């Protein structure tokens, strides 16, 4: 199982990442351990806003890539209305590959 997650940072920016262990990865980000992303080391993650799951690395990486390329307003829309994934990301991903968890 792969998780594609969106974190809110203290400067109100949104960081998107991918992991196979969501609890471990959140702990790394929130405690700013040496294993956290360089971005969250300096921008300080404060809240897990949204995450999706999927069964394979290829689909997870594809969704992560496309979310990272979204404009901030579209990322905010995806956080508020995750059921609009296909509309927001477009036909670049197959909505059926992903589950909305939070």
Automatic annotation (TrEMBL):
Q: Check the record and name the Pfam families matching this protein.
A: GIY-YIG
**What are the residue boundaries of the GIY-YIG domain, all occurrences included?**
1-77
Which InterPro entries does this UniProt record tie to the protein?
GIY-YIG_endonuc, GIY-YIG_endonuc_sf, UPF0213_domain
What is the annotated signal peptide range for this record? none
In terms of PROSITE patterns, this protein maps to: GIY_YIG (PS50164)
Q: Which family does it belong to?
A: Belongs to the UPF0213 family.
Note the PANTHER family from the entry. UPF0213 PROTEIN YHBQ
Protein name (Swiss-Prot/TrEMBL): GIY-YIG nuclease family protein
Organism, scientific name: Anaerofustis stercorihominis
């Amino acid at each position: 199982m792969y998780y594609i997650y969106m974190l809110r940072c203290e400067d109100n920016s949104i960081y998107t990442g991918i992991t196979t262990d969501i609890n471990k990865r959140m702990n790394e980000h929130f405690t700013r351990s040496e294993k956290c992303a360089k971005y969250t080391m300096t921008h300080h993650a404060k809240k897990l806003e949204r995450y999706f799951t999927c069964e394979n690395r290829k689909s997870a990486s594809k969704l992560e890539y496309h979310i990272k390329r979204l404009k901030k307003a579209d990322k905010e829309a995806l956080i508020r209305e995750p059921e609009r994934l296909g509309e927001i990301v477009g036909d670049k991903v197959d909505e059926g590959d992903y589950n909305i968890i939070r």
